[in-house]
Structure formats: C-alpha cells, structure tokens
C-alpha cells in the first residue's frame, strides 16, 4: 500500500456510535468498552450528553428527545455508568462518569439520539424561520434557488414541526451574518431529513440575502400538543397512506368497517392535503401493528377535524363488520417524477395519482408540456420532449393522454387533458422529458477512461476549465464516469482557441464532498475560459489504464498500459502466470488462463513501457509490481506480452458471443445466474462489459434443466451505468435454488435506438438508427416493407402503410449508415434482424429510408399474434388500453374476411381455431361475433351475441390467415440468398416443384428477397429435400412479376412431384468466403459475389477482420495476415477493398467496406492471405466438396465427428447459422447414431455415446432431444428441439462410433457415383464384386423375358390391329410428356436410388390408373400365367406395374451397350415394357434392406 493511501484511509475506531437509525447520525447510543460495544440506559443519558454525542460524531446538533427505545431481545451488553456531561465537551469520552450501578436499566429502555445539521432561526417559534444548515462546524443560511415545498415538508417533519404551511421570503425573518450556502436539495418528500435528499451545488449562481430559504411549519411539537393530530404513513408523500391518530402521547391506528370518501375528505381537509381521491383499506402487508387509537368513526364529510365526527360508534354496530386499518389518498399526494434517465432532470414522465404511479401518453406531447414538468421538478426549462418510450417502457396505469399545456401551468395535471386513465395508448408511447438542468459527464471522443472532460448542461456539451481543479475533483469525476475512484490531470500542449462551449470553472471539490455535482464552482457560463490549455483532460484509475488488444474479447489480447498520455506495450521478459494474474485482475476479468509472449496477438506500436515485470500475483495492478522501465531499448515489439483471462461474465448457448444465457465466473467455476436475481440494468451492463452494444428487451427466461451446473446465488444490484458487471453491487448469498426454476438470458445488439424524425407525427418520417451513442440516417438500398413493419410495430405505430422517398422528410446532417436489415417481419425490432454492410455503395440523401406507419393502436384496433407475419395468427382486439383475446364458437371465413380487410392484409385464406398450445392466456376483449363479410371493421359486426347462443357451442380463441401473409424464403443454403425455395401459404410452409423451373422464375424470388438477380435455378433438390406440402408446380414466370404467386402456375397444392424435385435458387447477392486452393486454414482469402469468386484486398484490413473471416470459415477465432512477395498482376477478380471491421462487429458481413468492384486492387501484393489458428473440418471422402465453405453444401455434409480416431468416430457436431455446434445426449440412442453415421458417409453405428465421451465441445449446442426413426438421411430430417433453451451443457455432448465407410449407402448429392463403390484404398471391395455378378445374372434374365414379350406382341399385331393406334398413341404421348423428360434427367444421374424413389410415386394402375394426355388409361401388365393381354386396366397380379414410369421416351431409340451395372439395369429398350417380374422382385428386396446395412 502506498503511504498516502494509508494516511488517507486510517480512521480511529471511536468511543461512541449511533446504530439502528436511518443514518450514522441517528439511532440508539452505543459506547465502546474494550472490544465490545455496549448500549446506554436512557436514565443515565441527558440532553447534554446528546449534544456532545452529535458534536463528537460531527453530526451537528441534537434534536429534542421524545422518548427512549424499548429494549428487545438480543440488544447485547449494557453500559451501566451514568454520563455526567456539561454539554460543551468536544468528545463523549471527555464527559465525567458515575460509578457502576451493577443493575439493569431501571425503566427498561435505552438512550436514542437524533442529530441534525438543520435548524430554523429568527422565527416566533422553533418551527418557523430562516433555514440554516451546519457544514462541519459552521452554520450558514441556505439559498432558496431550488427551495420548494417537498424540501420544506422534509425539514418540518425532521424538526418535529409537522408539515410545511408556507414558504415566505427569507427577508421576513431578518438577514443573518452567516455565510450563504449555494447547495440545492432535491427531495421527493418521503425522506427522513434533508441529508437524505440529492444535493447539487455545481454551477450555482451567487445568492443574495433576499433569496434565502425560509419556512413556516404547522407547529412546534404539533404531535404532542394537539391531542387529535393525524398523520398518514407508508405512502409516497405526507398526503397519502395509512391513517394514524395521536392520543395520550403516542400514535395509534384508526380502524373502521365502513370507511369511505366522507371520512377520507375530513382527513385530507385536516391535513391540508386538498380533496380526497381515494378511501381504502390497506392490504395485509401494509396494515399497522401498534396500538389502536380510534375504532369506528362516522363523518358527514364537512367536518374540519376527525374528532368532530361521530367517534362513539356502538360496539354492536362495529361487530356487524370487520374493523380494519384505513387509508387515504389526497390530491396533495400528486407528484411527478422522471425515471430511467441518467439523472433527476431527464427520463420517462410518471405521475402519482390515486396511490399509484403511472405514465403519460405521447399523443400531442410537446415542449410546453415538458416545460411544466421541468418547472415542477425545479429542473429549469425543457430542452426536449421525446416520445415513443425513449426512456424505456413503463408499466401499470397510463394516467394522461392528449396533454395540452400552454406552458404557464403550475402542474401537469392543471393542463387540459382527457379524463384520468382514459387513453388509447400503450407503454411504447410513454412520454419523456429532458430539462435544461439535466447534467451529465463524459470524456469526449473516448472509448476508455481518458480524454477531455465535458459536462452536459442546457442540452449542450461543453468543456470544464482547470482553474482550482483538485485531485479530489478529478477523482469524483472518474467515479461519476464509472472509471474507478482515482485519476489525474493530463498536461495538454494544445494551442489556438477553445472548443466551442466551456461551461464551468473553479470547481472546488473538498474532502467531504461525495459527488462531483455537490462541488461548488463558478456559475454556468458558456465562456468560462478562453485558453485551450485551461480545458481539463483527465485519465482515470489504474484499472482503466490497461487494455487487452487483438483478442476475441476485452479479456484476451496484447497487454497495453497507459503512461504519459499514450498507450504502450509490455515486454515478455520474465512474463509469467503471476504477472498475467495481476493483469487479469486489473482488467476486471477472471483468473488468468495463459501468459503469452512473442507478440502472440500481433505486434504493437508506440513505446514499450514495462520490461521484466516481477509480480507476486496478489497485486491490484501491474503498476504495483516491481518492473524496469521500457525506455532502455532492450526489447522489441516482437516480444510484446499478451494474456488470456477467463472473463467475469460470458453468454453461452446463443448464436454468437453476444447472446445466450448468463454465466459468471466464481473462482475456477462458471455459474449460471437466476433470472430473479437479474434485471434489465444488469443486462445493459453485461452487453457493455462484453462490448456488444445494447441489451434487447427480455422476453422471458430459460427453464433450468438437469445438468445446468452450479448456480450463482447472489443478486446483482446494478444501476445500469457500470462499465463492467464486476463493478455492480451484489446482495448476500440466498443459499436456495432459483425460485422460478429459470435462468437469465441476454441478447445484445450494437443498434441502441430507432426513431422516425421530421414527420408530422411520431409514426412517420425519416428512419434514424442509433449505433452506440451516435444517431444516423439509414440508407434505403435494401429497405422494404418487412423491415418497415418491424420498425412500426417496435415504435408502437401499427404497421407500415407506405415507403416514401426519404427526401420527403428532409435530408438531415447526421451520418448515413449503409447497413442493410433483412427482416422477415416477425422480429420484435430491427436489432433482431440479420444485418449486412459489406460492399454497400455510398448512399445519397435522396436514397434514405423512410416510412409512414398506420399509427398507434386505437379503440377496437386488431392485431394477429403468433403467426409468421403480421397478417396471420391469433386475433386480438385493443380495448380500454389493453389487448384482449377474441373468442367465438362459429368462427368462419366471413369474420376472417373482415379481420383481413381491417388489417389491410388482402383476402382471407383461412379461418381457424388455434391448437391448445397456441391459445391465449390474457383477458378476453370480445366474446362472440357474427359478420356478414362485407364490414370494414370487426366492431361493425354483431358483437352482442346472446349468451344463450354462445352456450350452445364452445367459444375458443380464433385465428386468421390472410393473403398478405404469403412469403417466400430460401432455406438450407449458406445464406439468405441461396437455398431451397419455400412459400408460406395458408399458414404452412411448402416447397415448389422444379417442373419448368428456370431463371425467370428464380429472378422473381431473388427480387422478392432483395437478393439482386438470379444466377442459377437448380432443381432436383440441390439444397436438400423439403417436407410437407408442395405448393406450386409448373411455375411459368416472365420475370416481371412482383411475387412468385403472381406467375401462372397450376392450382395451389396441385402437383405430380416429390420432394426430390424441390426447386432452388442462387441469387447474385449470395456471398460466401473460402481460402483458395487450401486444405487447411491458411491461404488466399476469396469472397463469392454475383456467382464469381474473387480476392479481397488487404488495404485497411485489421486483425479483427481477419478473426471474423476465420470464424466465418470455421477455422477458429483468431488469425493473422500473411506477407506475400508475389509480383505481376492480380489473379482474376478482386471484389473488395478497405474492409474495416471494428471491435463491435460480430460478423464479417457486417463490416463496412468499399463498394463491390471486380478491380478493387491491381497489385497482387495487396491480395489478402491469412492464416487461422484452427483447422478446417475434415471432409468425408464420399463428399468430394469442401463443406461448409462450399456454396453447394447441403444438410448431408453439415456434420462432423471430432476427437475420435478417425472421421467415423467422435463427438457429433453439426453446422448451423455459420458455426459448428454440438448435439445434446438427451434421448440419444442407436437410431440417432445410425442416422449420424449414414450422414457422415460411414458404415452402421457401433455405439451411441453420451456424457462428452470424446471431450466437451465449445460454442452453441444446436440440437436437443433428437428423435430419429433410424431411416432418415440426416439428423436435420429427425424431430428435435432446438438447443437455444439452455437445458443442456457441453458435458452432455453426444458422440458416435461408426463402422468403416459404408459400401451400400447411397452417396450424397453431387458426389461421383463411382466413388460409392470404392473402398477406402480406392479398390473395388468384395461385396461390390458380388453385387455386380448378381446384377449381371439378373439383367440376363430380364433380357430373356423382354425378348419373349416382344415376340408375343409381334405375333398378336396381325389379329388385333385395332389396339395398335392406341398403343402407339400412348407411347407417342408419353414421349412428349415433360414428366418423361424429367425421368430421362433422373436416369442419367447415375444414382439408382433416385430412380427407385421416383418409381414409387406412380400409383397402382388397379387403384388409380394413370391417365394419358388424351384421357387414355395406361395399360396394365399382363396377369401372371394368363398369357399376353392388351386390355387396358386388366389386373396382372403384380404390385409393381408402377415401374412403367421408369421407361425412356420413345425418341431415344438407341440401344445401350450391355454393361453389368445398375444404370444398365434401369435402362430397358425404349418402346418395350419393363419386365415386372425381375424389376418388382428387385424392388421388394431393395425395400427390405435397412439403410446403412451391408
């Protein structure tokens, strides 16, 4: 410890203390004797001793004693000697003492003292006069600049003088000669004394004797002299609460069984609190426990005093009811406050009315309204009147709507509003205020705790001048900024003029000041100094004078320390774990994981400040350790030291490091945090600590499952402005499980605010987005209705009606963000949508995003919830300020049509009753409705259905699917712009058949999704097979349509396809990364854009950009640029340059860059080559592609086995949302393992393992409770729960042991067909040879049968010529059928399994004959043993006649060569029927062999 710290921190233990009070200056008296504190008997303690105690404790003067405290159990030892003080002693220890009495307190009570530094002087009594305050040993008069009734009430009550009656001018009580204190108290009226109120002095103007504070209280000793005095306790002010009456020297409860507004009116009148608003009986927790002062009272309502009412109510009358405590809320209790801002003069407006706090709606809210609020609070004038819940959404009641103040009113409720509680708003419209006297501190243009100190006043930031600035003032500024408890002034050599406004000078903080705002200074002046060298630059606290650079978070990277005004590195000479432990502690992180050298996180620049650091490991900072200075030149930056710390907090189980459930490190263990111990303030701090932006609203906690691990059992009491979670105060250990069986989850976003500006209302205008602390306009390059709907809903403005050009709402001067949001319309706000910025072009002021929303919900507004868009879901109606369910027992398309029309969602597609799991649970807004179908609004329908009618059925929640809910998406690709086409229709997702699917069709999809143009229109389930409905077939777009369903297809759901024909799309804005010609994680970085691979230029490429590229490639989380010595020209296209990823970017695609340009750089040395710290996942030999980096990667390849002896054993990991994640072992069994082995391209499963048998994974857990049948092709085809619920931990990772690579499993898509028959050595295996031989024999048999059939047909042609035209017609029409073209395409694929599966799709001719184009039915095969027959539809006795669909069209008349292969087997001669005997038998055998078995 430094010597100055010891001197400043040492405090004598003391002789006396006051305990059990509301401050160190009140309570019962304890005296220290030896090592023990002892209570003092009241009989041994007089007023002289009380005066000495207050003087000794430097607490001012003693208030008159009104009685002692009764001794309770556990009070401890008693001091048994009398204190014989005179009253002028400086310390209690100086008072003479009597001898020991050796007996208990004679009256059973102990001494209490209340000290005060406040008094009233020059009045006619002790309860009126000029207000004086004692500061240390000096009494001074208080300035009245902010003195109001709330402050005065607190003082009167504290002095035992009742309440404040009036605030006369100070001159009424004569001027004093004492100094005038410029401190301002800001009480809310509930404090015990003025010392508990917030205090400010900064910037206060000088005060004259005419402007000093004074008060006339209701009376000296009012509660003891008036036998019928009343008071209200437990409320928010002196004018509301439970009623108590003073009788016989003590306060007693008032009980009654018929308490109403007549009695309440008398109480409010007696207390001078205005009219009565409410009479009530307090709930059980708020009932009194003391003696009863009055039982039963009946008032007429006009009495001036409660004792003038009838208080002699007969016991018999009272016995009829239950006499309970009574309470009152008077008009005088109305108050206003600003909450959720950074100070008392900015925040959300809340009003206290009828005993509860409520908000104000922003309808018509403007500066005159805000001016009244600021004046009420003594906060100067109004600077801003924000709406749309700028300061967060409130809860409970909304008291006022449509407030219309002139600005001259005395209180907000004096303005002309609607009735109390009448509104058509939600809390998303809560009004806010920023007043001129809202003050705040910041360090200009600083991301740390060093920079130019600025103060916000009157809505404007200005500098602080350094005259008289003391170290104490700097320390208090650092504390206010959340940058520790110490700091120092930095010397600046700036010349020229000062930076605009300089608000303050001569800030004189003393040792007794506890807040920067309490420090006296010169008055506010925008030109406080004019020399730039006088502007204050400070650097705070050792903890902030260190940072870790280049790691994945703030707790890992190159160690840098701040010294002499600049950052410098630390040399790795003698750098070890003890040094790293200190560095981690100083960083506010968890224990050190590793101490690294040799510039492990890249070389730094600038000075090297420390060499040969020698820490013991227990120091608080590196500056406390022994070290040599780095200015001797013995170290180079290639020796920079680095550290990896464990961190204090992390988010796990989410889709990035910025989302998931919360874990806190305690010792060497990560512990989960209970949701009940975690509030929104803590969430904000977590996101700030992790450098992840702002916290999204919490939508619920994750349920705790088995194996969740240890739990953090202390409450986090964050204020919300702490820099790190470790800085938050914590409650004591609860020692019990999570009370609600839930754990805390947090999702962060770098977008911290959204608003519409320059519109006529809060619901239209130019879109502005706040990124961290800066507001900017959003570019409209990808702005569409889905994005706009999300924003309107988030702002409580209904839905988007139109997207006007941004120029309509002005250009603005703020920066223009080029980020593009890609919402699907279901997100809660834009921060939840995918975002891209890479390659975005510059944006002009004419191309900025704007929207006109429908407006906030009004009475009878509707919404649909729980669907895939705003146009489908369960119906809710807005009534009486809240959303309610709609129930009906005969809901049909007539009612649904009205709902869709009212919501402007097109025609109704479906009316339904949601299943049980999707039903609502809130209040019912409408029960029973009958519509004709033409009404414009649901309330115009018959909503007064008789109860008897409803009783005939069961009224249930109702739902609607409107045409406006139709959407398209691309799934199973690597991004949002490539994948299988799926359409949302009638509330269900379904696929599109590839019949006739081509580029014009794909162009429509790409345009709908904002993905540029179409590059490819692949069919044959290139992106994997879908499931469920196939919505469209034979789509035939021109390319100019607005949506895929506008093209001429067949009817919805009508098709002749299977999911092996699902259509896909590759759009021009599909992007991907790869390392060119690389089998590991090192090589030339390339990006796919517009269907072409191109290089990335290295200008402005940062380590952060390299790290994000490595993460995107699945190659770890760190990497470095490789220096290339190439000369000549660049290799082909170079798509990107100046990729500038900041520390806040969480994805490579979110990094801003120069626009896409195929010639971004022409020097090959500028092409980016990187090396990552991870390894690319092994690619199974059967795949023949680099997954997941390949653009054509499908589900089958998105799996790997890690940690085993080969690629067929290990921990199971799947690829999802751009990263690898594990599978939970819950319900993991051999059927699941069988599917995993098949997906890996391995043989049958040998064992299904759990409990992290091959080690614990990292990152997300993607799947839980996988339930496979065993026949699926991939785990993604199995039923499973998503792993984002937090019920599984990595110690439960599933694993698998598969046998050697399978020889019978069908190869994955796009693989070389011949490779499936090769062993791992590349030679044909014995089972394959046997299969080939058997296949050859079978083919010979088929050939013989075919010859016999053909011969029989030739013989019959002479006698049965009548059938010839039909046969030829059938074959001719089949040859022209598109289905045959498709079959030919499939047959050429080389995959037998494809043909078999397609064959199954043709129905049995007996049950559902396949009609030819001319209406002719397909002839069935001849019946076994019955001889040839051409009779159409005649039964053959075989169940395999469907194989006829496998024949080639007659145009292909060339006979293939006789090869012994599966392809030959599936290619009979054209115009000949397939021999059903051989083929059917083969198919039956094929169907009985389980997949994956040899």
Describe how the helices and strands are arranged.
Blueprint: H1 3-9, E1 16-20, E2 26-33, E3 36-40, H2 47-56, E4 61-62, E5 69-70, E6 78-79, E7 109-110, E8 112-116, E9 118-121, E10 128-135, E11 138-142, H3 149-158, E12 164-166, E13 180-181, E14 184-185, E15 199-200, E16 214-217, H4 222-225, E17 230-237, E18 240-247, E19 250-256, H5 261-270, E20 276-280, E21 292-295, H6 315-319, E22 324-325, E23 327-330, E24 335-343, E25 346-353, E26 356-360, H7 367-376, E27 382-384, E28 397-400, E29 432-435, E30 440-444, E31 450-457, E32 460-464, H8 471-480, E33 487-489, E34 502-504, E35 537-540, E36 546-550, E37 556-563, E38 566-570, H9 577-587, E39 592-596, E40 608-614, E41 626-629, E42 642-645, E43 649-653, E44 659-666, E45 669-673, H10 680-689, E46 694-695, E47 702-703, E48 711-712, E49 714-716, E50 730-733, E51 742-743, E52 745-749, E53 751-757, E54 764-771, E55 774-778, H11 785-794, E56 800-802, E57 816-817, E58 820-821, E59 835-836, E60 850-853, E61 862-869, E62 872-879, E63 882-888, H12 893-902, E64 908-912, E65 924-927, H13 947-951, E66 956-957, E67 959-962, ...
Parallel strand pairs: 3-6, 11-13, 19-21, 26-28, 32-34, 38-40, 45-48, 55-57, 63-65, 70-72, 76-78, 82-84
Antiparallel strand pairs: 1-2, 2-3, 2-8, 4-8, 5-7, 9-10, 10-11, 10-16, 12-16, 14-15, 17-18, 18-19, 18-23, 19-22, 20-23, 24-25, 25-26, 25-29, 27-29, 30-31, 31-32, 31-35, 33-35, 36-37, 37-38, 37-42, 39-42, 40-41, 43-44, 44-45, 44-52, 46-52, 47-51, 49-50, 53-54, 54-55, 54-60, 56-60, 58-59, 61-62, ...
